[in-house]
Write a structure and sequence with these properties.
Blueprint (H helix, E strand, L loop, with lengths): L1 H14 L2 H22 L12
Helix pairs in contact: 1-2
């Protein structure tokens, strides 16, 4: 999710498509939160890993 968010963020920036920029930021934030929760050992949605 982090990689997809980064790719969409960069595509939105270089192609000047604002919806890709917005979706990229959202995916980066959600991916970072899930990564941090998973790294601390906290179960997210009943799973210890979301991948």
């Amino acid at each position: 999710m982090l990689i997809l968010g980064l790719i969409l963020l960069l595509l939105g920036f270089f192609l000047e498509i604002s919806i890709l920029w917005t979706i990229g930021i959202i995916l980066l934030v959600v991916g970072a939160v899930l990564y941090v929760l998973g790294a601390t050992g906290r179960a997210v949605g009943g799973r210890k890993h979301y991948f």
